[in-house]
Design goal:
Distance between the termini: 60 Å
Subcellular location: Nucleus
Low-confidence stretches: 251-267, 385-392
Number of strands: 23
Structural class: alpha+beta
GO cellular component, one term: spliceosomal complex
Mean pLDDT: 86
Pfam families: UCH (PF00443), zf-UBP (PF02148)
Domain UBP-type: 12-110
Number of domains: 3
GO molecular function: cysteine-type deubiquitinase activity; zinc ion binding
């Protein structure tokens, strides 16, 4: 390259790079052209932050550069920088790496290893935005666009499951992740949550949730509240299925003999994914039919269990804990003292002895295989959206007492009751706790999902402190606060 050509290129770059306005940049939204609404070949204007299609003559980006005197653009796919309308590619991008990192944060192995390490100085766990506002890495707010806080708490929880998070942060896994759109967009959000180079102390889940709305046929949207449990189950199933399809496709591409994706061969290695390795356990369900007979003499109904029982082994993502009904109060309407119950009492559902009576059937449950991460769903809503003994309120407000660590699950495993088997403890620690609060000060008002606020409490494993996040609001809370709220979904990691 001649000296005159180099000088000319440098002159062009220097002329326009100072026009970049980083405070206008936000790459959390769906990458579609603001004019054509196309999602193909999209460029972002680094002066105003808007998205446009193409960069060649007669493209929307080309006309935007002329009409608005905005000249610096980035291709949102390959992250190359261009000056328009000259269509000149900027080669020296060392001063623009922060923009690349904002769009697509990356982590090396040493950075991933340090995320949970206990550090001597808290300042190493913090970063700052463009306005020098300090934020805690990994503990940032998610924008509640309209009514998507039900999804925010699930996304925050999953981003703090160490093994899942580390998988999606690891560059070596990008080749697998990027073969599925949902997994790609989910992984990008995880990387942004843990980024140390944010321009703002919060991010938006808009791009991911827009795709989820499309994929779920608008069952889960940003405009309508949903049950976080339903969203969690849908998300785990679809993330898992995305990896399974990749595994089966790649194996089939190698001309190997494989089973269908829907094969009943549950031990097929290709059906194991990072999602199932983290969250999937197995449970034994034994059922006995109940025969109802009428006594011919007394007209009294008699209930007898058949001697023969059926047993099945089922996979699970979530274990539901059933709360006892609230007893009637003197005035029949108000709660004067919230009852409390131990989590171990609720877990007796899975000891293989306690029965659950259903229509025409009696069941017992016992865990055959514990996952690395246990998810408990606290069933606060009955099927008919009412609670026995408490009129007008549609949720069960019983407070659950639980340890923050050393939750021993060994008593609920298969063969745990046999005398000749020495039981070893299987400990879990709480890492995420989703709670619900009502917006109404009057508990007698008829409630629905739109009247609840969903919050997430997260463990900072590096400092053993807890943080509560409500959309954009992030604050440190004491451990005692965790036991006061109405826990709805809990995430426990094996110790």
């Amino acid at each position: 390259m001649s000296n005159s050509k180099l000088a000319n290129d440098t002159s062009i770059e220097n002329m326009y790079l100072d026009t970049i306005d980083r405070s206008s940049l936000d790459f959390d939204f769906e990458k579609i052209c603001s004019v054509s609404l196309s999602n193909i070949n999209i460029y972002a204007c680094l002066v105003c932050g808007k998205y446009y299609q193409g960069r060649t003559k007669n493209s929307h980006a080309y006309y935007h550069s002329i009409d608005n005197n905005h000249h610096v653009f980035i291709n949102l796919n390959n992250l190359k920088f261009f000056i328009l309308p000259e269509n000149y590619e900027i080669k020296n991008t060392s001063n623009l790496n922060d923009i690349k990192y904002l769009i697509n944060p990356t982590f090396d192995s040493s950075q991933i290893e340090k995320l949970n390490q206990k550090v001597p100085f808290k300042k190493t766990l913090y970063s700052h935005d463009l306005n020098h506002k300090i934020y805690k890495i990994g503990f940032i707010g998610l924008n509640n666009i309209k009514s998507n806080d039900y999804a925010n708490v699930i996304l925050q929880s999953l981003s703090h499951i160490s093994s899942l998070r580390n998988f999606f942060l690891n560059l070596n896994n990008f080749g697998t992740i990027d073969k599925n759109i949902l997994n790609t967009k989910f992984g990008l959000l995880i990387r942004k949550i843990w980024s140390k180079n944010l321009f703002k102390p919060h991010i938006s889940p808009h791009e991911l949730l827009q795709y989820i709305s499309l994929l779920s046929s608008k069952k889960f949207t940003i405009n309508q509240q949903r049950d976080p449990k339903d969203f969690l189950l849908w998300l785990l199933n679809n993330l898992h299925d995305g990896f399974v399809k990749i595994n089966h496709y790649e194996h089939d591409h190698d001309n190997s003999n494989i089973h269908s994706i829907h094969s009943s061969h549950s031990n097929n290695r290709r059906s194991h994914t990072i999602v199932s390795n983290c969250f999937q356990g197995k449970i034994i369900i034994k059922s006995q039919s109940i025969i109802v007979e009428k006594d011919s003499k007394s007209d009294i109904l008699k209930f007898e269990k058949k001697s023969q029982s059926n047993s099945s082994i089922n996979k699970f993502w979530i274990l539901t804990l059933d709360l006892p009904s609230i007893p009637l109060f003197k005035d029949g309407n108000t709660i004067k003292e919230i009852p409390q119950i131990s989590i171990y009492t609720l877990l007796n559902k899975f000891n293989g002895i306690q029965t659950q009576e259903l229509t025409g059937e009696s069941r017992t449950f016992q865990i055959k295989k514990l996952p690395l991460v246990l998810i408990f769903h606290i069933n606060r809503f009955s099927k008919d959206n009412s609670i026995k003994g408490l009129s007008g309120v549609e949720r069960n407000p019983i407070v659950i007492n639980f340890p923050l660590s050393k939750l021993d699950m060994s008593a609920y495993l298969e063969n745990s009751k046999k005398r000749n088997i020495k039981r070893k403890p299987v400990y879990y620690k709480l890492v995420a706790n989703i709670i619900l609060e009502t917006k109404s000060e009057n508990d007698n008002m008829k409630e629905n999902l739109d009247m609840f606020v969903w919050k997430i409490q997260l463990l900072d494993k590096a400092t053993n402190s807890w943080y509560e996040i409500t959309n954009l609001d992030v604050k440190e809370v004491s451990k005692e606060v965790l036991l006061l709220g109405e826990s709805y979904i809990e995430f426990w990691e094996r110790e």
